[in-house]
Each structure stands twice: as structure tokens, then as C-alpha cells.
Amino acid sequence: MAEKDTKSKDNKFDVAVIGAGPAGIMAAGQAASSGAKVILIEKNKQFGKKILLTGNGRCNITNAEFDLRKLTQNYGKNGNFLFHAFSVFGPKETIEFFNKLRLETKTENNKRVFPVSDNANDVLGTLNKFLTKNKVNIAFNSEVAEIIIKGKKISKVVLKDGEATAKKYILCTGGKSYPLTGSDGFGYKLAEKMGHTIIKPIPALSPIIAKEEWVKSLPGISLEDTKITVFQNNKKQFEEEGEILFTHFGVSGPEILNISGGIGELLEKGEVKIRVDLFPLLNHEELLKGLEDVLKSNANKSVKNILSIFVPERFAEALLGNSGMDKNKIANNMSTIEKRIIVKTLKNIEITAQETLGFDKALVTRGGISLKEIDHKTMKSKIIDNLYFAGEIIDIDGKTGGFNLQASWSTGYLAGNSAVN
Ligand SMILES: Cc1cc2nc3c(=O)[nH]c(=O)nc-3n(C[C@H](O)[C@H](O)[C@H](O)COP(=O)(O)OP(=O)(O)OC[C@H]3O[C@@H](n4cnc5c(N)ncnc54)[C@H](O)[C@@H]3O)c2cc1C
Q: Which atom from ligand 1 is nearest to the alpha carbon of 53?
């Protein structure tokens, strides 16, 4: 990797890659591996700022889902667009890529892949090695302010301080989430000016702010193996199974993050309710029977103490408060109606989603450059002849678990390859 002064006369390249996140780094290194003269333009004074934050500093590099059809299912309705990119450079190739560069990896639960060192710095160091090995020129502190078009081609990019010219350009400026890392959504404006359609960006993989005060009074409580169903106008929209984590503002946890993009879309249209079933494997009658057995063997205990067998005590108190029942009622004295109320409460906790926590806290952006205007086999723009895209700037977002970085590696690899072939 050589640092490049974009004010110098020697600023003509085969490929100019804009944005040095995972997609841009992969695209630049891959294009340069063919011998092409490549410049990677980054507005920050270092690259991959966001990578250091990934996976809580551990970097969940990819997901070891090697069945590519199943893999695409983790990207919602747009997942099929990625099938070709995955078949060229999927999770298997990604793991091999890092291993070959001497980054050892390990696979944890839910097929999540991390560096053995649990340190995102090592991923960044490996990517640095990759850029150096392939002699990629890199211009730090270089923000692309404008892209100049002649006919149907980019003729040059204007930087805040200098300019660069290339035969092909790859735009990898990311989405709008965590804007302090550099991805502030300006790339959408650059693409829009070149005639591309931007599907409205909304925060995804974001915690949810709840309306109810009782929800916010339970920070730190986590309930596992729940069924989380999302409703609008009393109509079921979608559901997830897994953990729900209560926070001082609402709810979070991997499953909530995964459905937050969908909740964000629904919130644009109106109120959204999240219903949580704490016992999805039992129907009401089965749970009633189980509850009656527990009540019988704890006949002199209070209902609060009994509920605390099923859920954390603070949560039991909040639930009883919501159901209007006396928390000190003794099991022996409970009527069937009261028992049914408890069952209903355990299977039907209702939370009103007020809003997502926004781009500052959303791990990814849903929306971006319309996939209709990108060739999925090459990542080439269907509007501008010498332009390619990769990474989160396109209208792709995945679930938690390494899927978003995988989309960046795959589309970056494909764009880098296509730009030199
Ligand atoms: C806190 C956090 C944790 C995450 N953890 C994971 C995880 O563990 N696993 C996973 O798969 N995904 C994770 N993600 C998502 C993942 O990091 C992103 O999807 C991925 O970084 C997107 O890569 P990208 O290269 O498209 O964009 P980015 O990483 O956003 O990089 C874009 C780059 O372009 C530069 N840029 C922008 N505009 C310009 C311009 N005009 N001129 C020059 N440069 C410009 C930016 O400075 C930035 O360096 C996480 C995200 C966050 C915020």
C-alpha cells in the first residue's frame, strides 16, 4: 500500500475505488491483484473505522452458512440479488481469504465466524496486508466532493483537495448508519446526481424505543426462547423467535434488531405493536395446566413468587401490575379466571414500538441504490458505463450474524474483478 498525493500529476488510474470500508478495500485489492493501477480514496485519515466497531470489537467476519440459497434468505426480499456474488466469493471463500493471509478464524454459535484473537484490529491489519501485497495506492483525508460525467461516463472525481481520473470507478461509500465512522449518506447524493434511484434509507438492525414506561423500567432483563410477533392494525406482519432484551428506552437483542428494519418501514405508515409470547411451545390450555400444577405444589406462596419461577422477579411484578392482579395474592385463593389472566399475560405481552433508535445507533441502513439499476453479475451500473457499486450503499441489508460484512466482501470482490475484466 502506497500513500498517494492526489494533487500530484500522476493521478491517472485504471480503477478508482471511493470509500475504504470492507467493500472498498476488497474491491481495490481484488482489482489490483490483476496488475491494474488502483487508487483507494478515503475521506478519513485511516481506513475501516467501522470495522473496529464490528461485533463489539471482535468483528463477526462472516457466517459459515455454505448453502447459498439459505444464505440469501438472511437478506429479506432482496437476497436473491446476491446469489451470483456469493457463488463467486461466498463465506467459504471469505474464510479462506483471511486464513491465507494468516488470520485464523473460529466459528461460534449460529455459525458466526470471528478471528481466533477476538480482535477486530487483526482483521484490519490483515486487510492492510492485502492492500500492500497488491500495491494499492491509497489517498487518505481525500473526500470525493463531486463526480464529473461526460456522456454516459465518469471523466474524473473531484476531491476536496485535488482530483483523480480512472478508466473505471467503484463507489463504496457505505450507508448512513454510524455516520461518525464516515458513512454519512453522501454517496447516495453522488449516485443520485449520476441518475441513480435511491430507495429511501431507513435505520435497520436498530434497538426499538417503546412507548410503555413499564418496559423501560426493566433494563437488563433478557428473556430467551420467546416468539416475537409484529402487528399493524391488528394484522400480523412478521415474527421472529429468540431473545428479547429490555433496555432503559425499550427493547433490543439480536431478534429485535433483525426485525427492526421491518418495524421501521411499518412505522412510516402508522402504529406498530410487538407481541411477545414467553411460552411459544405451549398453547393456552397446556400452559394453564402447567401453571395449575405449580400453584398446587406452592399453595401458600404469593402469585408474585410463583411467577418468579418462570420469569425474573422484577419482570413478574411488572406483568402482574399490567394485568391488574394483586401480586400478593396467595396461590390457593386464585380463581380460574385469575389463572387464565396470568396465562394470557405470559403469552401476550404487548409493547408499542414508538421508533427505532435512528442512524446513530443502527448497525446498518436499509435502502440505497436501487438494485434494478445494477447488474448483479458484475455490480456494474446500468446507467453509467464505467461505474460499479459495492457494499452497504446498495439496497441490501442483512440480519445480524456476519451477513452484512459478507455482502460487502462478496460485492466488493465481484466489483473489483469486473472493473478489470
Ligand atoms: C457498531 C457496528 C457493528 C457492526 N458489526 C458487524 C458485524 O460484526 N458483522 C457484520 O457482518 N456487520 C457488522 N456491521 C455492519 C458492517 O460494518 C457494514 O455493513 C459494513 O461496514 C459496510 O461496509 P461498506 O464498505 O459498504 O461501508 P463502510 O464500512 O460504511 O465504509 C464506507 C467508507 O467510505 C468512506 N466515505 C464515505 N463517503 C466518502 C466520500 N465522499 N469520499 C471518500 N470516502 C468516503 C467512509 O469514510 C468509510 O470509510 C456493524 C456495523 C456497526 C455500525
A: 1
